Amino acid sequence: MPIWDMLDDEEKEEVKDTPKCSGRAKRNQIEVVPPIYTASELINLFEDFDGCWFEKYDSITRTIWKRYSKKDREDLTSFFTKHPDIELRSAFCNALGEWGNSEELVTLLDDPCFGVRKSAAYNLKKVPKDESLAKHLWKVFDSNHSGSTFAREALDSYIVHAPESGLNETFLEIAREDERESAKSSSIWELDKRDAIAEIESLVPLLQTEPLVTWSVHCALIEAAPIESIRPYVKRLSAIDDIYIQDALARKLS
Q1: pTM
Q2: Distances from the Cα of 16 to the Cαs of 7, 8, 102, 189, in angstroms?
């Protein structure tokens, strides 16, 4: 029996008078206001290891860091960069990036936790250009421990700080010699951004190689290379059973 038929007249009237709204629409209409903590309140919040940490993490990810004074920033930096919780140290790298605190971010590149090192490398792209930072980021990028997105993010930050001269040669070498797909693909995209046609064309023979793990390098080359350069490889590429290769090829030839 439907629930409506089980209600008496008074209950039905109550239901009719109840405002109707979509739960999702209601949530979307709520303005999420970042919590406003003083520096001391924020430190006290995370000095206490009890309580609901999910809500605590939410508060730090939504904090507006730029509103803190120089003294507040010094106190927060001293506290959070040494906090035993690795998620907090990682999240705080965002504040250091917004404040342009490259010195502390460079220090965190040597943090024992992978996630903190990765966050530090990523947030170094936010600080003002400083060529002295390039060597630190290249060391991270060139490390055997930097794979996948970590390598790509370290490379992205390196590009921000490295001298512009010689970058195309660096990208070309990475695309040819590096064994990490993310690094090779990122280098091809960077060459494409710079309209480095000659360098990209010199990489086209990579289309006849087998993939390291996925076909991401081949897809990047298909998208970046002039169409005439890839025509000799179309037959081989068309026979590859991979949706991303076929999508890139179809868009290139359309």
Answers
A1: 0.78
A2: 12, 13, 60, 58
